[in-house]
Write a structure and sequence with these properties.
Strand content: 5-15%
Oligomer: single chain
Strand order of the largest sheet: 1-7-6-5-4-2-3
Shape: globular
Number of strands: 12
Helix content: 25-40%
Largest sheet: 7 strands, mixed
Structural class: alpha/beta
Bound molecules: pyridoxal-5'-phosphate
Distance between the termini: 74 Å
Radius of gyration: 23 Å
């Protein structure tokens, strides 16, 4: 028998009482929660008594974060946290669909979402169509009697096209199917998905919401209570519950989210104009710019919060791209977004490397195409780094 200072019991007595409360949410790594009696446990499982049982089923650190995002999104029921953004995407596609169903996805979805649509769902007997979410007529033409949902992102990656969310939401309503919005890029700061007709909202908290590139986490919430419940049950069964520590870090990141977002997107607007004026820059893609193909839609949907992502293209081939990345001193050349520091990604060598050069050209992604996730640097200092890097690339 293992002993501790209290005698022969391994588990110590409860925490000391304190009339005052901690300001910071305590981290609760406990996997199990002890109930007093079988009656009490019964009441917990029946939902008559609120209480945690086993952390895969739910734990306080996850609920605190879910409720914080619920408030930001205006979610009517407590959302579900998953161990990554892809967990949230998977929960919707695998937890709600069955063989014989058909789904429509945006044709420029996040790479892994596209892969799930093109590889995994068909293997399970679920048919998929990938359509331009800016073209409601094309989406309408893809509808079938067994179409169950449409999954889109508001702003696409990396060409920053803007989906016709209002048109899609009217279409989904008319067809009696679900509109699922991955709101990772736009965040509830720029876009309240439920207010714009979404039935289900998805986030990768890994990106802007947590914001420090030290947490991997996802969120999903449905307007309909029964669907929200199904998502929760599926994520618990599939083992997608995140660790308390990741949730605890995410909560800390969320505290400064609004400030970070506003700062990053204000700097992104400055950087976009700065890049557009640099010799050697062929084009700049930023939805706030009047030359953006979806500028008016972005203005109507995003209410002046155009997000922190800027894409641009320089002249030249891979050599110029390498020179640019080397010249961008102090910035991370890394395939992510939403970090406190500015990150630069190069689709031709990362997210879109599997495509042929012709296909990439069709999508407007040459060797000189870069995507920037703007962080919290001083705007002037950031612009100076880009001037230097573009000069190095065109030299
Ligand atoms: C990153 C990302 C995801 C996936 O999130 P992970 O947390 O990396 O699993 C899904 N959708 C979008 C739009 C993303 O940017």
């Amino acid at each position: 028998m293992i002993s501790n200072s209290k005698g022969s019991l391994v588990r110590p007595t409860p925490l000391p009482d304190s009339a005052s409360r901690p300001v910071v949410t305590p981290l609760s790594p406990s996997v199990v929660y002890a109930s007093d009696t079988p009656d009490m446990l019964d009441a917990q499982y029946d939902g008559d008594l609120q209480g945690y049982t086993y952390s895969r089923e739910g734990h306080p650190n996850a609920d605190v974060v879910a409720q914080a995002i619920d408030r930001m999104e205006g979610a009517p029921h407590m959302g579900v946290l998953t161990s990554s953004g892809m967990g949230a995407v998977s929960a919707v596609l695998l937890g709600l669909l069955k063989a014989g169903d058909h789904v429509i996805g945006g044709n420029q979805l996040y790479g892994r979402s596209l892969r799930m649509m093109s590889e995994d769902l068909p293997r399970l007997g679920i048919e998929t169509s990938m359509v331009d979410p800016g073209d409601v007529d094309a989406v309408r033409a893809a509808l079938r009697p067994d179409t169950k949902l449409i999954l889109v992102e508001v702003v696409s990656n990396p060409t920053l096209r803007v989906a016709d969310v209002l048109g899609l939401s009217a279409l989904a309503r008319e067809a009696g199917i679900l509109l699922v919005i991955d709101n990772t890029f736009t965040t509830p700061r720029a876009f309240k998905a439920f207010d714009h007709g979404a039935d289900i909202v998805i986030h990768s908290l890994t990106k802007l919401l947590s914001g420090h590139s030290d947490v991997m986490l996802g969120y999903v919430a449905a307007k309909d209570k029964a669907i929200n419940d199904r998502l929760r049950v599926f994520t618990v069964t599939a083992g997608m519950t995140p660790s308390p520590f990741d949730c605890w870090l995410a909560e800390r990141g969320l505290l400064s989210f609004d400030l970070r977002y506003d700062r990053a997107q204000a700097t992104a607007a400055v950087l976009a104009e700065h890049l557009a004026a640099l010799p050697g820059v062929k084009r700049v893609i930023y939805p706030a710019r009047h030359d953006h193909p979806d500028h008016e839609r972005a203005e109507a949907l995003l209410k002046g919060q155009y997000c922190n992502m800027v894409s641009f293209e320089i002249d030249g081939a891979r050599e110029a791209a390498n020179a640019f990345a080397r010249g961008a001193e102090g910035l991370s050349f890394a395939p992510t977004l939403g970090d406190v520091g500015t990150t630069i990604s190069h689709p031709a060598s990362s997210s879109h490397r599997a495509l042929t050069e012709e296909k990439r050209a069709e999508l407007g992604m040459s060797e000189g195409f870069f995507r920037i996730s703007v962080g919290l640097e001083d705007p002037d200092a950031l612009c100076a780094v880009f001037t230097q890097a573009v000069q190095a690339a065109v030299a």
